[in-house]
Amino acid sequence: MGAYILRRLLLMIPTLFGIMLINFVLTQFVPGGPVEQIIARLEGQGDVFQNIAGGGDIALEQEAAGNDRYLGARGLPPEFIAELERQFGLDKPAHERFLKMLGDYLTFDFGESYFRKISVIDLVIEKLPVSITLGLWSTLLAYLISIPLGIRKAVRDGSRFDTWTSGVIIVAYAIPGFLFAVLLIVLFAGGSYWRIFPLRGLVSDNWEELTLIGKVLDYFWHITLPVVATTISSFATLTLLTKNSFLDEINKQYVLTAKAKGLTERRVLYGHVFRNAMLIVIAGFPGLFISVLFGSSLLIETIFSLDGLGRLGYEAAVARDYPVVFGTLYVFGLLGLLVGLLSDLTYVLVDPRIDFEKRSG
User: Fold this and answer.
1) pLDDT tens for residues 234-277?
2) Architecture (CATH level 2) of domain 121-360
3) Residues in Cβ contact with 124 at an 8 Å cutoff, skipping those fewer than 6 apart
């Protein structure tokens, strides 16, 4: 097992390199870089993308002025532009910037945000609690609902209960998370009906003044609606996965043999079927957590006014805040690769009969 883990860790190096290289190359062709952002603000043009969309006349003016490198830079001295490039590290060739970035990232030095004047790692740590809250509690809630529901659907396959719950699951899967979030706000956050839950934030303004129990209750009071909205699609998928996994095991020969020996249905289900059927479900926990953490957080965070990693990544991409974009990309890429390895180790933990070393051999 040790050799398998070592191989997986070594494979992460070229994988991360490829991820960073592809995204770095793509950003070289994306208009509206950090220098253009600063120029647009200084010129009072608002959003640099407005100029990109309707920049025909501007481009002609720039060409006449002999300054066609940056859109909207007319009237600004070349020395000022050169200083901006130096501050952003854009005065060096692209390959030198990429190699320096990789060297810094090996020591987890992600630099400082262009526009926030705070280190990228501190920025990620600051936003992480919101995303961890949504990812962790949504995943746990999905498992708490989906496993017993999926088992019951498998045991009562084809019954009226199985039919109407399947209908509910299909509807839940079809509803986008952000639309369900808006519905929850309308119903339970003072939109049009009841004002039971707060509309925004992770905690109340007076959270520091509350007792320990009060802080815990306040925290769960605030996260109820965002977590439920985030859970809706993963719950549906996980329920069907659990049901199909159990159905596959129930129809195998060893189950029929166990029943023929006189074992009760409950003992067969939880003594024999459960371990084999839950293998794929339990081992998928790390992957589901990561997908919930980074998959649908942007719209949910925006709707419920939560300042997490989803909004951070979106705002950094729009502002061309490259240290934040690449720093978070590196961290998330590394985290995703580690979670893939953790999923394999979870398989072995659930069922020691699995040996990845023999499989890879």
Assistant:
1) 788 888 888 888 888 887 888 888 878 877 777 877 777 877 77
2) Orthogonal Bundle (1.10)
3) 309, 312, 327, 328, 331
Domain ranges within the chain, ordered by starting residue: 31-93, 121-360
DSSP single-letter state for residue 22: H
Q: What are the residues whose beta carbons fall under 8 Å from the beta carbon of 123, sequence distance 6 or more?
A: 113, 116, 312, 324
Element (H, E) at 93: none
Region 36-56 average pLDDT: 55
Structural element, H or E, at residue 204: none
CA distance 285 to 147: 12
Listed residue (12, 82, 13, 72) closest to 45, CA to CA: 72
Name the residue type at position 348.
V
- Over residues 288-313, the pLDDT tens digits come to 777 766 665 677 888 888 888 878 88
To the question of pTM greater than 0.90 for the whole model, the response is: no
Helix H segments across 264-321?
265-268, 274-283, 285-295, 297-303, 309-319
Q: Specify which residues 59 forms β-bridges with.
A: none
